């Protein structure tokens, strides 16, 4: 399911954003500037999503959801807070869209004639190989 732009805007109003200092190497910029972004989206309290959508998200993304029922997303790969915020919101939309898309039903197919013949031929070759391993009859 692809989220529409109005729905994305409504989702963004429910998101809580906080910034903190990124970890790892980077020198003065990392030590001084709050560039790491953490998004918290309260799935269970959302007014944009209906109950079935909430259930789907809670079940499929349960490893990313904390005890308060919030979907946590962090972004700290970029040097600027703005870019990390954009990255985190994109990730939020992607995760929600992926969780809400229903998997396609599998269509049963039959093996082609060529693949059947190839399989039988390889079985014959394997059988001949094993036959040649036997000691000769005297």
Q: Encode the helix/strand succession as letters.
A: HEHEHEHH
Over the alpha carbons, how many angstroms does the gyration radius reach?
A: 27 Å
Measured distance between first and last alpha carbons: 72 Å
Total beta strand runs:
3
* Total helical segments: 5
Structure description:
The chain has 138 residues and is α+β, with helices and mostly antiparallel strands. The protein contains five helices and three strands; from the N terminus they run αβαβαβαα. It has a three-stranded antiparallel sheet with strand order 1-2-3, covered by helices on one side. The longest helix has 21 residues, at 113-133.
Structure keywords:
138 residues, alpha+beta, 3-stranded antiparallel beta sheet, 5 helices, 13% strand, elongated
Task: Give a quick summary of the entry.
The chain is of the alpha+beta class.
List the helices and strands and how they pair.
Blueprint: H1 5-14, E1 16-20, H2 28-32, E2 36-42, H3 51-60, E3 70-75, H4 81-100, H5 113-133
Antiparallel strand pairs: 1-2, 2-3
